[in-house]
Amino acid sequence: MSENSHGLNAGDNGADDLSDFDRGSFAHRGIVHDVFRSGEGPAVIVIAEIPGITPKVADFARRVRALGCTVLLPVLFGEPGREPSGRYIASSIAKACVSREFAAFATGKTAPVSEWLRALARYAHGSFGGPGVGAVGMCFTGGFALGMMAGPELIAPVLSQPSLPIGFTAKAKASVQLSPEDLKIVKERVAEGTCVMGLRFTGDRAVPAERFETLRRELGDGFIGVEIDSSEGNAWGIPTNAHSVLTEHFVDEPGHPTRDAMDQVLEFFRTRLVDPTD
Length: 278
Fold this sequence. Notes:
By secondary structure, the chain is an alpha/beta fold. It has helices at residues 55-66, 86-97, 113-128, 144-147, 170-174, 180-191, 209-219, 257-274, and strands spanning 2-4, 22-28, 31-39, 43-47, 70-74, 133-138, 154-160, 196-201, 223-228.
């Protein structure tokens, strides 16, 4: 992985210049993606949601960095640091949905990009040490952290609003976008003690309840499901269309359900990567 320290120029539109990150690239079997890196300690791979590494995705990565972790943000789509907008989101979705790397509509198949992410995890573990690597996928990339579990380096996977595969059939809603072979490996890893955390808002149509039901059925007590009430009239006034638990719909107020979810994720990484003896 080659690196340099240039970032984007900050503008007046709220963009994040990412100047506290180093920008490099990582190649595996001919596939190359840029990767932003910052911090020291065991690695956590933060896989950005659509439309890309937004300012709030970068802020989440900084929270992870503050734990004593090296954070790696691969650039799989979008313009790093750019604020989200309707047109920008639509453009990113259109490009991502037709990419063979992501297999957005496939059921019973692990997204091909998971192989590249596993290689990045191997590199990160070898370079930054610790007991293993953490990863969090969000929205479009939410399930990629599950696919990465086929590699032994990943010991702290978080699936935040995992939205793939796209589809409205019963099969698509229940799918966790894993091949049968990789699902078997994931179940074996869980049986050996690795836990999987998942986050969703209850009213999020992009992340059907059936998907979490599959995870509970297949992984049992090894699945830590965090479901935040976003039904109409909920006590916290969370909008019924809330989607991004750790970023766009995160509310940094003590006692707020999204703050509680954030704290659970950070503690998940801390106890498995930074202070595994706690």
